[in-house]
From TrEMBL:
Subunit structure: Homotetramer.
Residues in coiled coil: none
Organism from which the protein derives: Xenotaenia resolanae
Entry protein name: Phosphoglycerate dehydrogenase
D-isomer specific 2-hydroxyacid dehydrogenase NAD-binding domain span: 112-285
């Protein structure tokens, strides 16, 4: 591809310092401004050729409309649901992410959630801090021999499968893109969602948030599951319908949930966070030193490659532009 001229980049969130260092080493001027309100970002964005964000900055159509010189939006992380990709594409702006940077961190947190759900670790720890010694209350169950349903068999789903197989779990899954013979080579038997729901003791979701995945687990699908199924969402808020999950927890149809993500972050509705059978985290999937270093470095190197006319890695909109 032809080189693209990028002289100035705005970093609007806390990104690993390697990102700035790499860009500056290649002669790109970098400005860091965090916690900007939408109006501030709209006023500021016209001065820059590139924008680097994580998940908090909402790059809406209004922001893109004001971005007279913008040529690239770099997301230091995986999901780009905080960027209006269509509006960017129409304006000829390349949107790219760092798809592999936080894979291991997200997979490890998912496994930690599965283990915590099986043994009530957070609840027991809190009980101890309150001065209690309550062994009967926190009776758990082994993961060994249980069935784990993995919905979404991309990078993260694959890594979760490998780790939970080491615990002796049987891993089954669904993915509309990954061929069944490929997932079978790493020990995951693929099947339709209709076949998957009734077999699972645990379900974990690893899909993007898009119209076809909103409310993937809802009243109807919970009813098809085993009574007491435990669910984990370290992907995106909204893949599991939050109201339906509340109802399933209340009825006992769902035996517990591990949630790292919410439809609204931070969640104003506390009914899930406060539920005794819910373990929740404030969106920590990519919050490790290693993932942040990887994502910051990857997005900077991808921008530099673009400036030098090399291959576009991680571009989610460039195919449509070309």
């Amino acid at each position: 591809m032809a080189p693209i001229c990028i002289r100035t980049v705005l970093i609007s969130e806390s990104v690993d310092p390697r990102c700035r260092a790499i860009l500056e080493e290649h002669g790109i001027r970098v400005t860091e401004k965090q916690n900007m309100k939408k109006e501030e970002l709209i006023a500021e964005i016209k001065h820059y050729d590139g924008l680097v964000v994580r998940s908090a900055t909402k790059v809406t159509a209004d922001v893109i409309k004001a971005a007279d010189n913008l040529k690239i939006i770099g997301r230091a992380g995986t999901g780009v649901d905080n960027v209006d990709v269509d509006a960017a594409t129409k304006k000829g702006i390349v949107v790219m992410n760092t798809p592999s940077g936080n894979t291991i961190s997200a997979a490890e947190l998912t496994c930690a959630m599965l283990m915590s759900l099986s043994r009530n670790v957070p609840q027991a720890a809190m009980s101890m801090k309150q001065g209690n010694w309550d062994r009967k209350k926190f009776m758990g169950a082994e993961l060994y021999g249980k069935v784990l349903g993995i919905v979404g068999l991309g990078r993260i789903g694959k890594e979760v499968a490998a780790r939970m197989q080491a615990f002796g779990m049987r891993t089954i899954g669904y993915d509309p893109i990954t061929p069944p013979e490929v997932s079978a080579s790493w020990g995951v038997e693929q099947m339709s969602l209709e076949q998957l729901w009734p077999q699972c003791d645990y379900i974990t979701v690893h899909t993007p948030l898009m119209p076809s995945t909103v409310g993937l687990l809802n009243d109807e699908t919970f009813a098809k599951c085993k009574k007491g199924v435990k669910v984990v969402n370290c992907a995106r808020g909204g893949i599991i319908d939050e109201a339906a999950l509340c109802r399933a927890l209340e009825s006992g149809q769902c035996g517990g949930a591990g949630l790292d993500v919410f439809v609204e972050e931070p969640p104003k509705n506390r009914s899930l966070v406060d539920h005794p059978n819910v373990i929740s985290c404030p969106h920590l999937g990519a919050s490790t030193k290693e993932a942040q270093a990887r994502c910051g470095e990857d997005i900077a190197l991808q921008i530099v490659d673009m400036v030098n006319g090399k291959n576009l890695v991680g571009a989610v909109s460039a195919t449509r532009i070309s």
